[in-house]
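Researcher: I'm comparing several assemblies side by side, and this is the next one on my list. It has 503 residues spread over two chains. Same procedure as the others: predict the full complex and return the structure.
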Amino acid sequence: MKETANSGQVSVRIIPCLDVHAGRVVKGVNFVNLIDAGDPVEQAKAYEAQGADELVFLDITASSDERAIMRDVVERTASECFMPVTVGGGLRTVDDIRAMLNAGADKVSLNTAAVQNPDLIREASEIFGNQCIVVAIDAKRVAPADTEEASPLRSQKGSSPQGDGGESSGEEPKLTWKVFTHGGRKETEWDVIDWAREVVRLGAGEILLTSMDSDGTKAGYDIELTRAVSEAVEVPVIASGGAGTLDHLVDVLRDGKASAVLAASIFHFGTYSILEAKQKLAGAGLPVRLPLEA
Amino acid sequence: MRDKAPIVTVIDPEMGNLRSVCRAWECAGAQIRLAATPDGVEESAAVVFPGQGAIPHCMARLEKTGWAQTIREWIAQDRPFFGICLGLQTLFEHSEEGDTAGLGIFPGRVKRFRLGPEYKIPHMGWNAVRFRGSPPPLTDGIDLERDQFYFVHSYHVETAEQGLVWGETAYGYPFVSAIAHGNCYATQFHPEKSQAKGLQMYANFVKSL
């Protein structure tokens, strides 16, 4: 029998993220042929048809009323889409998690609540299984000068989110990142690598890692951050923040050792299709699942 | 064409949401009956077991509800059965997960992946399945060379009974990702999360009833 394209590796995943507020997708989405472009279910179906590997809904307000609306969105999506769906945003208790899983989410993503109450990770993963529990980590670089009395040489470096270390000469300053919560507004005491190890120890089955330095820049993912976390933990790491071109996806999957990439605007605005992204990844030698039309 | 959709009983171990599994089987042409206990299962054309959670808890539920014995008899009678994920793993003798005895229907054991650090655990995402033997009707419409299915698991089946193995998947090394024995099928992957090709597999099964 002929070898399949697969050679012992799982395909890297492309995961579009939809921000949902009060049951509607916020930020314009530029797909044609959508009956209702603001309807999350319509968009989920469009992404499924394009060959997205999974989908994330981020509930960006998550007041209790809106969470009920979100459950309805998840229920409708689970009835019409047959791919894994993760829901994040404002989930604070085991009951919140249970409600989303019962609505049809395959996984939930915990962020601030996990930092405030790490035991929630352990409790939820024991009840629902590790594979259901994604911990989202918002990471920001800390200049070495902030963490120790550093030389002037060191304090000049380390603030650039895009520095790949290639231009440095002499001693390599050790990069460090701090965990932020509350949508990036609040700094915590946690070092990102320590926190990543801790959440996995507690039972997280996956880490959704967002670089606050890169997010919104369209200048590329934080490769060093992603690689450092991926090498520190056994579970898959989803890279997020900074995608602007398809090369950025290749870079973070190959050099950053991410298992998956989360992206919003490059797909929402129709800059690239999922298929184009996958063709790019396949061309770079990464294992992908190509949609039917490919 | 039949005028009535066949009744398929989905075992509900009451450990989580079965909405997408049930919905997928409905899309595949089945009429779903969700059942926490085996009462009334005789009238069904098939039993579907979407195992969930951790295997020790799942096995305890099967024993408590009477499903354990019913599944053994159902498969012994070669009545149509489809197991998914834990619904595959529980059919074997033993699992390393919590050192748990399985249903013991087929010879073999469930082991944790033993892989180098370059392999993430759980094995999560889309991977290919190499289906074996004369193509059974369940793979009609599936491109055996390139279609992929969605996996999420840290443990996998090992069996010396090669005749059981319907499909293998490579993750570091090849492991058993699907079995077939008469009218009993079980997959490690989740057809209900595998978009059109997963639904196709369910539809093929329903068509065979």
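Model: For your comparison table: Confidence is low (pLDDT under 50) at residues 1-6, 148-169 of chain A.
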